[in-house]
Amino acid sequence: MDEQWFSSDFWGRNAQQGVEWLLSTVPAVILLVVLAYVALRVITFAIGRLKALMLIQLHGRSSELDVIEVEKRVETLASILHSLARVAVWAVFIMALLRRLGVDIAPLLAGAGIAGLAIGFGAQELVRDVISGFFMLLEDRVRAGDLVVVNTVSGLVEKIDLRTIVIRDVTGTVHVFQNGKINTLANTTKDWSAAVVDVRVSFKTDIDQVFEIMRQTAAGLRSDAVFGPMIIADFEIFGVEALDAAVTIRSRFKSKPMRQREVGGELRKRLKAAFDTAGIELR
Q1: Which of 24, 31, 46, 154 is disulfide-compatible with 149, CB 3.0–4.6 A?
Q2: Domain spanning 3-122 has what CATH number?
Q3: Is the per-residue pLDDT at 255 higher than 50?
Q4: Regarding the domain delimited by 142-187, which CATH topology (the fold level of the hierarchy) does it fall under?
Q5: How confident is the model at residue 174 (pLDDT cuts 50, 70, 90)?
Q6: What CATH number was assigned to the domain covering residues 193-278?
Q7: How confident is the model at residue 49 (pLDDT cuts 50, 70, 90)?
């Protein structure tokens, strides 16, 4: 057996080296832990402030926004940001710790880069969907309950998350779209909706009389106890829209989101009764 194991000099030198290593490494590790903790606390505080600002901004856009939906959207975005920030902090902490402990992290970084590249190629559609969904939620383009047209398919949004948007059309069919593959998105219930009503009458009809009947009927609907609160702006008559087999007159009531069908249906019913009373035939 090697005699150095029984040498006091050998154990003395190693003990001294161990003490020096502890004195130089332990404080650095403690400092890294403290910095990581402080960074996490700062991130939590910053994201909390960001959540508050986002809530204020989104609530200020329209008084009709659903409070629960707004808070849900903001909570989703804040949770994603917090998770990404935590991963970044822990990744930096682990690399700094390994380097301080004398571990060569170059092979680890190279391996991580190769693995990340492979994963990136395989999951590029997923990444695209997540990024598109993130900005869709952040910019408040659409939310659950909106009536939308996605890639020529119209329906009601049942669910929206970072990867997909789910809509149900009028026949009850459910359509699922990847956020990254949405080419066109039209939201017909953003802040307000429109009940557009076209009236077709014969060429011999007095158009001014038709306008007056429409205004009186709309005024009655606006003052109605049930339908009045659904309407958010005065009745608009755009004039003669088309001249073909009949004279088409276009009008519009601005309503609260998702209330346009109720308002439009009631307006059409009342216009039909008013024109019948006046002896005006609809085409």
Answers
A1: 154
A2: 1.10.287.1260
A3: yes
A4: SH3 type barrels. (2.30.30)
A5: very high
A6: 3.30.70.100
A7: confident
